[in-house]
Design brief:
2 copies of one chain form a homodimer.
Chain A lengths: L1 H20 L5 H7 L6 H13 L3 E2 L8 E2 L1 H11 L7 H11 L6 H16 L2 E5 L8 E10 L2 E8 L3 E8 L6 H15 L9 H7 L7 H18 L4 E4 L3 H4 L6 H11 L2 H14 L8 E4 L11 E10 L3 E10 L4 H23 L1
Antiparallel strand pairs in A: 1-2, 3-7, 3-10, 4-5, 5-6, 8-9, 9-10
Helix pairs in contact in A: 1-3, 1-4, 2-3, 5-6, 5-13, 6-13
The structure holds a DNA duplex (30 and 30 nucleotides).
Chain lengths: ~350, ~350
DNA sequence: GATTAGCACTCTTGTTCTTCGAGTGCCAAA
DNA sequence: TTTGGCACTCGAAGAACAAGAGTGCTAATC
């Protein structure tokens, strides 16, 4: 139907205009900027209809229209076209990421910084989801009497460690004995299948009294459990203050206040990930009210998945105002993800 | 001299009032709130004199006075009385810090969070200065062909590690050989005395070709050098948005923008530390223009030193508006430092 | 039925003007 | 040295007003 076609074009034009100008867009400006082959009165009718459909709304009677959350959703789902970055843009991002790093963690930090700088928004990087990855090595190193370092090597070369307490009089030899035994019994096991019970029953060493052994095993277990904790790194929060969307102090306060609770953000992104339907290279987009976190009603999340090897993955993305250039940001995230995956191969290759 | 006494009392009253009310204080309100045994006209004369001395200033002709940077300085140096925290306050802080952690790093993060929450300001924690600490252990662990983990144990049980590249065909045994040799040659050396040259000349192992050895040594060296990098953790930036001092968006932008450059802040705190004159439990205070960082003209730094063992120390403190309750904040920092030192002893004892 | 011109109406934004009040500086007297 | 008194300054807050952008609706037109 031609009419509906035009209505959608109008919605698209409204989103495009509003995103760039940050001003409610009226029928007249719409005509001026996009060359619709109809009059402003017709557009007014269309806009009234779009409003009835819940896709746009007006801040007050005599202002233009702005997209509603559902309007953005429609835009993102059906109207938007994602285009390639220019060569310069790609090079710019590459330059920011391509420093020689040998640890996934550093690479992700680089990528996060690059993402926040190029988008001018808040970048978000989740640490890799390690629960499903396998424990390839585990070593207990004596640091000093009573303290040991648990070093774990997981699939795809991810390394984690933690300092733990051990009985004071345990000798380095005894520790090594336990270490070897633990390593042997856990070798290749996925992290989330390791429980204190399996650990205690499978480790056998006759030379060390059970009470000591159990204490070490317990500490080792806590180290393993801690290894798969999900963290989130946010960067570029101050960028939000530059956006007119948060020029009202209250909004900025709410936003940054909520973002300071890393755990909440991490949890939410994790949830989004679970609800994901598409493949690894699809985007998860949450707009405005769709976001269940207080203070983020005027924001959108765009996240996607990066991979470390075949088994380990994590999320990367941005948090920005609803009123953002979705298309551009998506291609930026896409390219950053591409760079991450590429570099991870370098590190692990 | 009695007169000067009163003038200083006036300055003190102005600072106290301004800090609590955030409003320029005039002669009349001064009389009302503090019971000066003189008339408002007399205070006006005193204030004119204080202004001539550069200790207070007026935002505009018909407003009251506010302390100048030098006024705050005078207040902090000579007028302020630091009083003990109440039992509840101490308990509150204790509760926030006293979780069982076995790594200094985690303890410091806890402390930082506690500090930012109790002060309502931005807390600042520097990683410990490790340059002067000694290398007690160094191990190279094979992660997978071509990748090794350098684990370093420094004085006072501080552990650092880094993943490095090694030649692909190096065997675990060869790596162990190098590792033992490196450890023997560096044992007990202060980090900052270790150079690539000393490393290369002192390590002897006949079984491995020089070119391979040197590559490993170089990577080990970078790991050692990276270990003593100073980082800074800032927490509670969003608190600043709640303060009326930064209700002007521009100020908030500048502030958060600058604080996002971790390196700059770290460098500056490091500088302050160098200029320090008193002992470890004294405070370093920098007020307004004294701070050489752009965007922090309306802020003050208060930092002090925590210790890990006898040789290692670091800084902890807050960044807040010039207009803050110096006395209160100082006693809060003091108590947090006390808790850190206490807990570190627990960890290392 | 879709489109358009026209027009009355609404509501924000910016400007100007005014008033109010807190605070100052200074003078002359105590 | 202190004080009462007074003229003066300046920002904050509010009222009044005009301008402008945009809408909805109606009646005519394609």
């Amino acid at each position: 139907m031609q009419v509906n076609d035009r209505k959608m074009k109008v919605l698209q034009a409204i989103v495009d205009d509003y995103v760039t100008t940050n001003e409610p867009v009226g029928s007249k400006t719409l005509i001026e900027r996009h060359n619709f082959p109809v009059s402003s009165a017709t557009l007014r009718n269309d806009m009234a209809e779009l409003e009835r459909m819940g896709l746009i709304e007006k801040p007050h009677t005599s202002a233009g229209r702005i997209p509603s959350d559902r309007g953005y959703r429609e835009y993102v789902d059906s109207l938007m076209t994602v285009d390639q970055l220019t060569e310069e843009e790609r090079e710019d991002i590459s330059r920011r990421i391509d420093t020689t790093v040998y640890e996934a963690r550093d690479l992700l930090k680089n990528a996060s910084a690059a993402l926040s700088e190029t988008t001018g928004l808040v970048s978000l990087v989740m640490t890799p989801r390690l629960a499903g990855s396998s424990l390839l090595q585990l070593k207990l190193l004596m640091i000093e009497p009573g303290k040991a370092l648990v070093v774990m090597v997981l699939s795809a070369g991810v390394v984690k460690d933690k300092v733990v307490r051990i009985p004071n009089f345990l000798t380095p030899e005894q520790l090594k004995d336990i270490s070897d035994s633990v390593e042997k019994s856990l070798n290749g096991k996925p992290l989330d299948e390791i429980t204190l019970v399996t650990l205690a029953t499978s480790v056998k060493t006759t030379k060390i009294p059970d009470s000591l052994l159990n204490q070490v095993l317990y500490e080792t277990y806590t180290a393993i459990k801690q290894a798969d904790r999900l963290d989130v790194y946010l960067e570029g929060e101050h960028n939000m203050l530059k956006l007119p969307d948060f020029s009202e102090l209250r909004r900025a306060q709410n936003l940054l206040g909520t973002l300071s609770h890393d755990g909440m953000v991490a949890g939410y992104v994790n949830e989004i990930e679970k609800e994901k339907t598409g493949g690894d290279d699809t985007y998860m987009i949450r707009i405005g009210q769709e976001i269940a976190l207080e203070g983020l009603e005027d924001c959108s999340f765009i996240t996607t998945t990066y991979k470390i090897g075949d088994t380990i993955s994590g999320n990367i993305g941005v948090i920005g105002p609803k009123r953002m250039d979705y298309s551009k940001v998506i291609s930026q995230i896409d390219f950053v993800r591409y760079k991450i995956n590429e570099q991870i191969k370098n590190i692990n290759g």
